[in-house]
Design goal:
Oligomer: single chain
Largest sheet: 4 strands, mixed
Strand content: over 45%
Shape: elongated
């Protein structure tokens, strides 16, 4: 009897952890940007890097999906060198993406879109084979 309940509790605990992980990974980080005019502007950058012993090397270039296209403009992603803003590697330039927003001609106001990034993690990470980050962009066009 104890083994039955112990096993059932273990399965329940694994299910809760799995559901919590799925729910947490689905949340998007909000990025606000303000731009003037109708020219394309970089509103964000994203890169994956390895920080082993302060090396700050470029990691694998992530795959991306534009999960929500803006109604009044266009999101594009351009590969290139981007600056890292995190403390340990601050100011280093590594391979990544520039997220660019261009409003439709004559548009003024707020627009929004979202992008999801996915990349293969370091082989030693046995619990999470892939990393994901999702960003929601809210752009104020003046």
């Amino acid at each position: 009897m104890i083994n039955f309940y112990g096993r059932r509790f273990g399965l329940l605990l694994i299910s809760v952890i799995t559901l919590t992980s799925i729910a947490h990974s689905a949340q998007a980080e909000l990025i606000n940007a303000t731009i003037n005019g109708s020219k394309p502007r970089v509103i964000h950058t994203f890169a994956v890097w390895l920080n082993e012993k302060g090396s700050c090397l470029s990691g694998t270039l992530p795959q991306f999906t534009i999960t929500h296209r803006p109604r009044n403009g266009r999101l594009t992603l351009k590969r290139g060198r981007v600056s890292v803003n995190e403390a340990a590697c601050k100011g280093k330039r590594i391979n990544g993406y520039k997220i660019i927003y261009q409003p439709n001609r004559g548009f003024r106001g707020f627009d929004q879109g979202s992008v999801k990034f996915r990349w293969k993690r370091h082989p030693k990470k046995i619990f999470q084979k892939y990393g994901t980050r999702k960003f929601e962009y809210v752009v104020d066009v003046k």
